[in-house]
Amino acid sequence: MGYNKKSNAELLALKEELAAQYAAYKASGAKLDLSRGKPETGQLDISNELLTNMTGDGDYISTDGFDCRNYGILDGLPEMKRIFSDLLGIPAENIIIGGNSSLNLMYDSIARFMIYGVLDQTPWAKLDKIRFLCPSPGYDRHFAILESMGIEMIPITLNSDGPDMDTVERLVSSDESIKGIFCVPKYSNPTGITYSDATVTRLASMSTKAKDFVIMWDNAYALHDLYEEGDVLLDILSESARFGNEDRVLYFTSTSKITLPGAGISMLASGKRMIDKIKQLIGVQTIGYDKINQLRHVKFLKDADNVRQIMKMHAAILRPKFNFALKSLKEQLDGLGIAEWSYPRGGYFISLDTMDGCATLVWNLAKEAGVTLTNVGATFPYGKDPRDRNLRLAPTYPSCEELKLIMDILCCCIKLASVEKLLAKQR
Ligand SMILES: Cc1ncc(COP(=O)(O)O)c(C=O)c1O
Fold first, then answer.
1. Is the C-beta atom of 261 inside 6 A of ligand 1?
2. Which of 302, 332, 365 is the last residue of a domain?
3. For 361-377, how does the pLDDT look when each residue is reduced to its tens digit (9 = 90+)?
4. Distance of alpha carbon 180 from alpha carbon 417, whole angstroms
5. What is the pLDDT of residue 93?
6. Is 396 strand, coil or helix?
7. Which helix (H) or strand (E) holds 350?
8. How far is residue 386 from each of residues 160, 199, 239, measured CA to CA in Å?
9. Among 7, 241, 254, 389, fewest CB within 10 Å belongs to which?
10. What is the C-alpha to C-alpha distance for residues 420 and 414, in angstroms, rounded to an integer?
11. For the chain, how many structural domains are there in total?
12. What is the value of pTM for the model shown?
């Protein structure tokens, strides 16, 4: 029976039962973490070869004969570009290989637009007001970049097929101060949705009042399918080229969750004019990124087909965890009318919405029972969830045994918080 159909007496009895369960969990002294979207150790082991595959016997020479121990090659080894190009269907000449973090490339891109402007436009820092559209729930580190640079964030509802495009089109066509949008288009962090073809085409073709409007296309989970048949994302670069808008798109990804987070290889792609401009500016910032790491990755990853095999190994580790977490939510919460959650087919997260006004209470209850959840509000601009209901669950890092206890504690906390909320309403 749905909790909202229960009488006051029934809710009070339920509260007593749940409070006893909760007290037992609390007394068990658990110390568990569901907050971190990190690969587990077994996934890291897949890439152990990276730690030893540069033996020094001439391994430092790239396919075109370049000695990677030395300075040179600003925009990345051709063989590293080839792998990304084959995987993502982006021409190699549109790609810049970066350092160990795509987030770093995103930060630098926004910083460059602030300082130098987008192509030949006025630097954003010289304008009175700069605003960005932020599909939400979204990735807190995108919001942190914008907030740190004083860029005003406008939340946009993220639907199951992408951002609410009617609102996006209405805003960008009428407001010159709106300079961009941050997107995680595939297995979005945290809801797991993938943008539909129609959404990608609308983003690629829409007319914007700002001539210097950019789409920050963070395809961090491009290859991170959990099941044999993955979601298919329309290629925004070729799509925007059809409308002459290819320089509007800044396309990012990395091998952070293919090889080793923090020690992988990142990539930025865009239209030719934008890539040339970025190369010119990066050339001032660095003589070149770490080519030894690129070479190490090329030796390990080999080619696009082998990368796809590696991703299957990751999926084999992650799938049971996602399936278990989802089964647990279904068994414990389905039909109660107190929570809704996503069924992602890839990526690293499950997004769960509690009843309005309950997420903070759930977070606090879980914390006291020893389970750390991602901060409430983290998935919204300025850390403020307007309905206090979204929780980002990251089931990848804990072991299967830990996950079982975590899900039991979490479900108990959700039930308890919901009962308290409903009782407060009845008062
Ligand atoms: C959407 C998204 N983008 C980027 C990153 C970080 O990428 P990188 O390690 O390449 O900086 C993450 C990490 O969780 C992410 O979820």
1. yes
2. 302
3. 999 999 999 999 999 99
4. 38
5. 98
6. coil
7. strand 350-354
8. 19, 25, 34
9. 7
10. 10
11. 2
12. 0.97
